[in-house]
Amino acid sequence: MKSLLLLFFRKEDFLSCGDQARVRNRTVGIVWGAGLTLALLVYLVGPDQFLDQAFGFADHLAGAMREALLTLSGRAYDVVRALAIACFTVFFVLSVVATGRGLPGQGMLVGVTLLFLILVWHQGPEASGHWVLAFLLSATAAANVTRRLMG
Question: Cα torsion for 85, 87, 92, 95, to the nearest 10°?
Fold first, then answer.
């Protein structure tokens, strides 16, 4: 859970207080703001249709990325796949190093690995959009683990 929080917040957002960690007011405000925004979104879309709309949006986003990638040459597609695999490898190795040093991150390692494998498992014409999403996921995760190791 703590590693998931570190995806969105800096370590300085938490105040050490014995074995427990107190959270700064700014962090609590951000979480409440996100929750209220989610409530408004669910209300506007409709609670019964929210998940359908969210999955539809994700499919639309993957389709738009696929179309953008199809307009590029085949080499660009190969570059995106190579970058996705390289960024995931960097993320995986750095996560193992961070875990060995006692930093939190096991949950992130499992979650990103599963999402990456789900995204790249598809074959066929729709796979190009999934590879772009896999690249964005792995690059973001690798940057996050690098930031935690450096600071």
Answer: -170
Which residue, among 117, 114, 110, has the nearest Cα to 96 in the 3D structure?
Answer: 110
Q: Is 70 exposed, middle or buried (0-12, 13-18, 19+ CB in 10 A)?
A: middle
Q: How confident is the model at residue 12 (pLDDT cuts 50, 70, 90)?
A: low
Partnered with residue 63 across adjacent β-strands are none
Domain residue spans of the chain: 2-150
Q: What is the pLDDT of residue 1?
A: 47
Query: CA separation (Å) from 48 to 38, 45, 60?
Result: 14, 8, 20
Tokens of 83: 């970058």
> pTM higher than 0.70 for the full model?
no
Q: Which of 113, 89, 109, 88 is nearest to 100 (CA)?
A: 109
Alpha helices for the chain (secondary structure H): 2-8, 25-45, 50-71, 74-100, 106-121, 127-150
